[in-house]
What does this fold into?
Amino acid sequence: MEKVVITGMGTVNPIGLSVNETWKNVTNGVSGVGPITHFDTSNFNVKIACELKGFDPANYMDVKESRRRDRFEQMAVAATKQAIDDSGLQIVDSNRARIGVMLSSAIGGMKSLQDGITTMRDDGPRRISPFLIPMIMPNGAAGLVAIDYGIQGPCLSVASACASGADGIGTAWMMLRAGMLDAVVAGASESTICEIGVGAFDRIGAMSRRNDDYSMTPAPFDKDRDGLVMGEGAAVLVLERESVAKARGANILAELAGYAATADAYHVTAPDANGAGGSAAIRSALQNAGVNMDEVGYVSAHGTGTPLNDAAETKEIKGAFGQDAYKLAVSSTKSMTGHMMGATGALESIFCTLAVREGILPPTIHYNTPDPECDLDYIPNVARESKISVAISNAFGFGGHNAVLVFRRY
It folds into this structure.
């Protein structure tokens, strides 16, 4: 089967409004956490998040049209424009049916749904916006991108909780490898920093409450970690069959070499403590990529900063690599971006692409106290220069979803 290559990338997220800005900040250990400004947190246990700052949708779309789009859709359109411009991909009548869209979201327009329910309660059903359904549906971003660019191939959205972005990119990889398409705009977007989003995740017990000293949270793999910090944003890749990219003279950034997914079949929110499902996904992804275990130089961990996730993921990495796990460089960039839910796997795909391309591995910041249950090399606090050939990205989600992507230097 033909190789799948990455030719363009785009993102808006808590630490950057472009790929270049984001890469500079993530390799310099810049944290995106701060007090929540989207709503009044007076009655909430959680008052911090990694919000997208300085984003103006008018830079990417008509102002009137932006009002008819949920924030997660606005961000997806912005990241897509960056990625397509970066790739130089021309979408014309002769190829638009051979191009697909795979833009995922775990939840969709949560804030728009919350606002719609409030309007119905306060003002009655006749005041509900006629645009509410397109604003809340998780496939809304994918549909809008296809409309904006006239893309007529498959237009899909994967919803697998916090693995959504990775599963969507992996599904695009399979379609390209099978020869169904020549190119896919693939990624994810999420915006859940609203009253119902923050309140509900806090009720699960997943959120950090270090409101007064947020300079040290989230703290993935640290012994004193106390939960995730919610983030928001979008990240998009342009994926192409190698022959198509080379024929048009595209700048190939890296190869997306493999993908696999498994299910824990264990619990709706908690990871399987023995890590068997994640380990199986790692092994299968490497096998599908034709990559040996000893070729892997970096693991972009799911690393949410919750006690259960980080301990389970450490076991998953050990279960896949055995004693060689102690030779791996592992880090969680969620320590800087926060947990962007379904979009995180897409953003971390950009980080893996740049890690194999640039030879710089992002750190895990806020790491101060080692945990006996988390005893791998987590690249503490400072980025590391290391010329690697292969990186993998783990994305695990509620419902027991495990997705792993493999990136190889081109």
User: Anything to note?
Assistant: The chain has a mean pLDDT of 97.
